[in-house]
C-alpha cells in the first residue's frame, strides 16, 4: 500500500517540514527526488552454475560530495527501499553537520544462503560494477556497512577498489566500516548503538521532553524493549544496560523473544546467539511474534527493519517513548497514530546517525593517513603528568588513582572517537529538541529534525544560485 511504503513515509515527513519552512515549490522538488538510481544485474559462476544478482546504488543528493550511505544485503531489497534510505542519508548527514550527500546501496540476496568465498566473489563483482560507474570512490561515493554486511564485506570492497585503482593514494577511503587492519577506525562497529545510547542520555537531560512522555527522570531502571539483536540492537542494549542501569526486559528476534522482567543479560544472550545461531533455548525464550512490540515498558527500540510499526499495530503500542535505531521502523500511517496518542518518537535520521558520524571520522583518518591522537597523545600525557606532580607537591597528597587513570587515558583513538560521537549526537538532539519546543506548529521531533536538515540542504543550493 502506497501510504505504508517506506519512500512515501520519508517523503510525507519531508513535505510537512518543507511546508513549515515555506520553501519554494521548485526547490522542494529538487531536494526531494533522488538524483539517480543505478540498477545492475550481473552474473557470477557459483556452485550451481551462473547466478544472476540484482544490485542498486541510489544517489539522492550531491549538494556535498562524496555521497555517503551503506550497502545492505537483504532478500527483499528493492528500488523503493534504496531510494527511501538514500533520502534519509541526505537528511541525516545534514542534521549531523557531516559534509556528505546522501546515497544508499543494496544487493537483493540472503547472505545466509552463501558460503563466505561465494559472498566474496559476489561482493568483488558488485564492486567492479559500481567502480565502472563512479559509484564507489573516495571523492565521490563512499559506501559503508548496513544490514547483512559488515567489516568483512567492506574489506573485500576496499581491496577490490584498490586493485582497480593501484595508484590512488586515498583508495582505502572508498568505503568506511573497514576492519582496523584495513584502514578502519576504533569504535566504528559499536558506533550506531553507542549513538543511540548518547541520544537517549541527552533526551533524559531535557526535562521538558521527558515530561511529555510521563516518564520519571533519568535512564536508571527504565524498562526497554529491543527488536533485533544485530549490530545496532546489541550495542545499544549492551551499553544501556551496563552503563545506564536500564533493564532490557524484552528482546525480539526473528524466531521469538526473550522476556525477563529483571533485565536480560545482553552479553550472555549475545554469546548464546553466536554459539547457536539463534536465541532459542536461552532462559526466558518464548515463541511470540511481533505482538511483543506492544508489551508494557518505558522505551521501545526497534533495531531490526523498516515498517514494523504501522497502521495495524500503532494504536496498541504501550511505550511512551520510541527511539528509532533502525531506519524507517515506523510508517507514515503508524507515525500519525502515535503522534495523535502523544507517543514521543526520536527519529531514525537522528538516533542512528552514530554510524555515519564515525564513518566520517574514518574517512578523514584515511585521507590524512594518520591515526587520531598519534601526534599529541604523549605530549598531552607529559603535560598532565607535570600538572599532577604539581598538584601533589602543593597538597602533599597523592593524586587519586582513578582520576589519574582517567586524565592519562585521554587521547587514544577510541576516546577521541567516542568524544566526537557524543558531541555530535548530543548537539543534534538538543537542536531538534529546541526546534520542537520553539512553537506549537512543529508537531514532533521528526518534523523538527527534518526542518533543520532540509533547511541546511536548501541553503547549500541557494548559496550557489540554484
Ligand atoms: P544486522 O543485520 O546486524 O541486525 C539486524 C537484526 O535484526 C538481526 O539480528 C536479525 O536477525 C534481526 N531481525 C531481522 N528481522 C527481524 C524481525 N522480523 N524481528 C526481529 N528481529 C529481526 O543489521 P544492523 O546493521 O544492526 O541494522 C539494523 C537496522 O539499523 C537497519 O534498519 C539498518 O538500516 C539500521 N542502521 C544500521 C547502521 C549500522 O551501522 N549497522 C547504521 C544506521 C542504521
Largest sheet: 7 strands, mixed
Q: Strand percentage, roughly? A: 15-25%
User: Mind telling me the CATH superfamily name of the domain at 191-351?
Assistant: NAD(P)-binding Rossmann-like Domain
Bound molecules: nicotinamide-adenine-dinucleotide
Content-based structural category:
alpha/beta
Order of adjacent strands in the largest pleated sheet: 9-8-7-6-10-11-12
Query: Given this structure, which CATH class of the domain at 191-351 is correct?
Result: Alpha Beta
Helix content range:
40-55%
Order of helices and strands: HHEEEHEHEHHHEHEEHEEEHEHHHHHH
Beginning-to-end CA distance, first to last residue: 35 Å
Oligomeric state of this protein: single chain
In the CATH hierarchy, the third-tier topology of the domain at 191-351 is known as Rossmann fold
| Secondary structure tally: strands | 12
The general outline is globular
Number of helices: 16
Radius of gyration: 23 Å
Amino acid at each position: 500500500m502506497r501510504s505504508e511504503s517506506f519512500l512515501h513515509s520519508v517523503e510525507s515527513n519531508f513535505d510537512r517540514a518543507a511546508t513549515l519552512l515555506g520553501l519554494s515549490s521548485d526547490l522542494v522538488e529538487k531536494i526531494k527526488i533522488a538524483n539517480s538510481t543505478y540498477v545492475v544485474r550481473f552474473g557470477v559462476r557459483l556452485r550451481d552454475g551462473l547466478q544472476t544478482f540484482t544490485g542498486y546504488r541510489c544517489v539522492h543528493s550531491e549538494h556535498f560530495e562524496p555521497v555517503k550511505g551503506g550497502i545492505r544485503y537483504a532478500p527483499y531489497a528493492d528500488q523503493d527501499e534504496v531510494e527511501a534510505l538514500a533520502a534519509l542519508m541526505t537528511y541525516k548527514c545534514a542534521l549531523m553537520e557531516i559534509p556528505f550527500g546522501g546515497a544508499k546501496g543494496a544487493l537483493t540476496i540472503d547472505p545466509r544462503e552463501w558460503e563466505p568465498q561465494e559472498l566474496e566473489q559476489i561482493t568483488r563483482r558488485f564492486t567492479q560494477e559500481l567502480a565502472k560507474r563512479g559509484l564507489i570512490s573516495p571523492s565521490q561515493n563512499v559506501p559503508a556497512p548496513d544490514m547483512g554486511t559488515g567489516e568483512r564485506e567492506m574489506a573485500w570492497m576496499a581491496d577490490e577498489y584498490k586493485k582497480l585503482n593501484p595508484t590512488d593514494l586515498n583508495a582505502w577511503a572508498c568505503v568506511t566500516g573497514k576492519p582496523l587492519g584495513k584502514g578502519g577506525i576504533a569504535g566504528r562497529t559499536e558506533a550506531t548503538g553507542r549513538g543511540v545510547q548518547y541520544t537517549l542520555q541527552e533526551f533524559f537531560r531535557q526535562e521538558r521532553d521527558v515530561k511529555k512522555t510521563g516518564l520519571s527522570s533519568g535512564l536508571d531502571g527504565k524498562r526497554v524493549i529491543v527488536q533485533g539483536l544485530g549490530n545496532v540492537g546489541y550495542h545499544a542494549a549492551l551499553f544501556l544496560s551496563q552503563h545506564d542501569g536500564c533493564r532490557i526486559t524484552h528482546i525480539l528476534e526473528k524466531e521469538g523473544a526473550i522476556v525477563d522482567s529483571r533485565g536480560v543479560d545482553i552479553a550472555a544472550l549475545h554469546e548464546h546467539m553466536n554459539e547457536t545461531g539463534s536465541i532459542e533455548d536461552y532462559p526466558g525464550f518464548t515463541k511470540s511474534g511481533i505482538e511483543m512490540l506492544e508489551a508494557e515498558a518505558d522505551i521501545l527500540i526497534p533495531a531490526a527493519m523498516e515498517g514494523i510499526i504501522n497502521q495495524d499495530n500503532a494504536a496498541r503500542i504501550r511505550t511512551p517513548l520510541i527511539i528509532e535505531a533502525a531506519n524507517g521502523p515506523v510508517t507514515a500511517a503508524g507515525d500519525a497514530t502515535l503522534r495523535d496518542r502523544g507517543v514521543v518518537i526520536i527519529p531514525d535520521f537522528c538516533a542512528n546517525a552514530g554510524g555515519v558520524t564515525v564513518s566520517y571520522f574514518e574517512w578523514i583518518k584515511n585521507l590524512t593517513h594518520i591515526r587520531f591522537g598519534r601526534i599529541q597523545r604523549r605530549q598531552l600525557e607529559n603535560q598532565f603528568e607535570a600538572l599532577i606532580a604539581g598538584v601533589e607537591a602543593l597538597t602533599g597528597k597523592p593524586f587519586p588513582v582513578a582520576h589519574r587513570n582517567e586524565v592519562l587515558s585521554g587521547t587514544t583513538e577510541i576516546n577521541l572517537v567516542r568524544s566526537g560521537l557524543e558531541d555530535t549526537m548530543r548537539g543534534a538532539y538538543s537542536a531538534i529538541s529546541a526546534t520542537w519546543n520553539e512553537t506549537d506548529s512543529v508537531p514532533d521531533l521528526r518534523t523538527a529534525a527534518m526542518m533543520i536538515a532540509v533547511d541546511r540542504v536548501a541553503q547549500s543550493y541557494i548559496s550557489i544560485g540554484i
